[in-house]
Amino acid sequence: MALADAVRGFTAASILARGDARGIDVLDLSVGGFWRSFQAVLWLVPLHALLLLVLTRSAEGDAVAIDWTAEYVSLFARFALFPLVALLLTRLMGLTARFVPLVTAANWASVLQGGFLVTALLLISLLPPDSRPMLQFFAFAATMVYGWFVARSALQTSGAIAFGFVLADFLSSLVLDQMLDRLFLA
Predict the structure, then answer these.
(1) Which of 106, 129, 158, 162 is deepest in the core (most CB within 10 A)?
(2) Would you call 61 helix, strand, or coil by DSSP?
(3) CA geometry: angle at 15 spanning 24 and 17, to 5°?
(4) CA-to-CA distance for 144 and 138, rounded, in angstroms?
(5) Within its chain, how far is the Cα of 53 from the centroid?
(6) CA 110 to CA 103: how far, in whole Å?
(7) 85-101 burial string, b = 16+ CB within 10 Å, else e?
(8) Burial per residue of 141-174, b for 16 or more beta-carbon CB atoms within 10 angstroms, e otherwise
């Protein structure tokens, strides 16, 4: 894993997180840069472990059973699914030229989203149980808004079209998770 690629990707994702679409210009949008952006999933592995540790406790403090193998299969499958959804949608919408920027930006942005979500959930877990659901919703919504901004910036399109991409990603991930749950529970 090339540290220089990660630094460049994280820098771009951080610029985008500040609401500056010029973060896209920092990314390596070559074919090699596109493929190297998939190393971002390796940065998500420890973040996902922290997230699972947070989720192993219910709101009441009781232990919750989590199938770590299933969770990691789901993580890698979702990471592979988005480019397929993006490829289909960029072709349907006439945005094929923006496919590489979208996937590259989304890959690096996912690490920032994961770090934010883990940090937020860790802090929220310290609060009284009855105050957690609304704050968890806001943390999730913040990651979705960021994903929308990344999509809009990478696609160089309207907010509505970018929202469609984010919604398609979210819904396809839900379907994939349901399929994987059935597979692992069988």
Answers:
(1) 106
(2) coil
(3) 105
(4) 10
(5) 18
(6) 10
(7) bbeebbeeeebeebbbb
(8) eebbebbbbbbbbbbebeeeebebbbebbeebbe
Q: On the CB side of 22, how many CA atoms lie within 13 Å of its CA?
A: 2
Q: Which residues pair with 3 in a beta bridge?
A: none
Half-sphere exposure of 32 (CA within 13 A, CB side): 3
- Which stretches does DSSP call E strand in 19-128? none
Give CA–CA dist 44/87, Å, rounded.
23
CB 176 within 8 A of CB 81: yes
Polymer length of the chain = 186
Mean pLDDT by 10 residues, the chain (186 residues): 89 98 97 96 91 70 71 89 97 97 98 92 86 91 97 98 97 92 77
Q: What is the pLDDT of residue 100?
A: 98
Task: Report CA-CA distances (Å) from 153 to 15, 103, 111, 171.
Answer: 11, 12, 17, 21
State the Cα–Cα distance between residues 65 and 167, nearest whole angstrom: 29
